[in-house]
Structure formats: structure tokens, C-alpha cells
Design a protein that fits this description.
With 146 residues, this protein is α+β, with helices and mostly antiparallel strands. It contains two helices and eight strands. It folds into two domains: 44 residues, no CATH class; 90 residues, Ubiquitin-like (UB roll). Strands 4, 5, 6, 7 and 8 form a five-stranded mixed sheet that branches. A three-stranded antiparallel sheet has the order 1-2-3, with no helix packed on it. The radius of gyration is 28 Å and the shape is rod-shaped. The protein binds zinc ion.
């Protein structure tokens, strides 16, 4: 394969094969910057990184009265009173889950989830991560097959 330039300086890739006393030109095309580095000699790594930020909202509707109720629960760390609240969870995978029912320590601010919410949160994050992984693979395949 040869790299050439047109009169107007557009890059050209010329794919050729040696024939009997002549060079057979198989194809000529203009390389794209999507697939090639700016020198048009190095093919870009065909890894498509799509880091979608998926925001998931839990369908949990705690009433304001519900949130004001005191609990008899105590903080594991400082022994402070736990009150009901709603919080946002930032997963290390970039998935954000908003409006999660939780307990917050009035003294140190530590956040607790009950077992049911923990399981639901875990399932949501895992499911979102799976969808993101599938989308990444799908896009990478699209670019590979061009
Ligand atoms: Zn505490």
C-alpha cells in the first residue's frame, strides 16, 4: 500500500500488487481520520469507549411525613439517631441512582440502606452496567466491520 497526495493535497491510499512488469492498482481511496492517525500511516486502535452516564431513578415515593418520622435506630459508628432521608448513590461504574430511601445519622451523616433497598440498588447497578457493556461491544463491532 502506498500513501500519496492529490494536487489539492488530499491524502490517498493506493493498494497495489506487483504484476508482470507493471504494478496492478487494486484500489484507491481517501483514508478517513476516523480510522487513521493524522499521518494516515497508522490505523487507530478500534476500541470505542463509550462511557454513558446512566441515571436511574428508583420508583420509591416516600412522603414528606414519612421522612419526618423518627426511628429508634442508632448509628453503628457514633451511636447517633438515624432519621429517614433520600440520597443519591454514585456507583464507581459511573451509574447514578437518585432518590433512594435511606437512613442518615443526625450526628455524623453516615448513610444506611435497608436490606431490601440494598438488593434493589445492587440489581439496578448490575443491570445498567450490563446494558452499557453490550452497547460498547455493539459500537466496537460496528467500527470493526466498516
Ligand atoms: Zn453516626
Amino acid at each position: 500500500m502506498l500513501l500519496g497526495r492529490t494536487k489539492s493535497d488530499r491524502p490517498l491510499h493506493i493498494v497495489c500488487a506487483p504484476g508482470n512488469e507493471r504494478l496492478i492498482i487494486i484500489t484507491v481511496y481517501e483514508p478517513s481520520l476516523i480510522e487513521w492517525e493524522p499521518d494516515f500511516k497508522t490505523r487507530e486502535e478500534m476500541i470505542v469507549r463509550v462511557r454513558a452516564k446512566i441515571e436511574v431513578e428508583l420508583a420509591y415515593r416516600a412522603s414528606e411525613e414519612e421522612l419526618k418520622k423518627t426511628t429508634s435506630l442508632r448509628c453503628y459508628f457514633c451511636g447517633g439517631r438515624l432519621r429517614r432521608t433520600r440520597t443519591t448513590y454514585y456507583s464507581p461504574l459511573g451509574i447514578i441512582v437518585r432518590d433512594i430511601p435511606a437512613f442518615e445519622c443526625e450526628q455524623c451523616g453516615e448513610i444506611y440502606f435497608d436490606a431490601k433497598t440494598s438488593r434493589k440498588l445492587d440489581a439496578l447497578v448490575k443491570n445498567s452496567a450490563r446494558i452499557m457493556g453490550e452497547e460498547e461491544n455493539r459500537l466496537a463491532a460496528v467500527f470493526r466491520n466498516r
